[in-house]
Amino acid sequence: MLTTKELRELDDAALSEKLVETRKELFSMRFKHATAQLENTKALSGAKKTIARILTIQKERQGA
After folding, report:
1. Contacts for 2 with CB less than 8 Å, ≥ 6 apart
2. Which of 12, 25, 32, 48 fits 38 for a cystine, CB–CB 3.0-4.6 Å?
3. Are 18 and 8 in contact (CB under 8 A)?
4. Transmembrane region positions (predicted)?
């Protein structure tokens, strides 16, 4: 999981790519959680927070 500082250093294309990648991870983790295969359930909330951070940074850049 990347920190906010690391995410801000990425350019727009890399940020969009990271968003798609994190959403795929979240999708996969949801299925694993539903079938009781996910051991680290805290990773779900971490992925959601990373997605929120990326979207926030993208919105800030659009407005600036």
Report:
1. 18, 50
2. 32
3. no
4. none
Distance of CA 45 to the CA centre of its chain: 10
Where residue 2 falls among pLDDT bands split at 50, 70, 90? confident
Q: What is the pLDDT of residues 10-60, one digit of tens each?
A: 999 999 999 999 999 999 999 999 999 999 999 999 999 999 999 999 999
Amino acid type, 24: K
The secondary structure of 24-46 as a DSSP string is HHHHHHHHHHHTT--S-THHHHH
Q: Which tokens in the block code for residue 48?
A: 């959601």
Q: Report d(CA 24, CA 62) in Å as an integer.
A: 24
pTM over 0.70: yes
Domains in the chain and their CATH numbers? 4-63 (1.10.287.310)
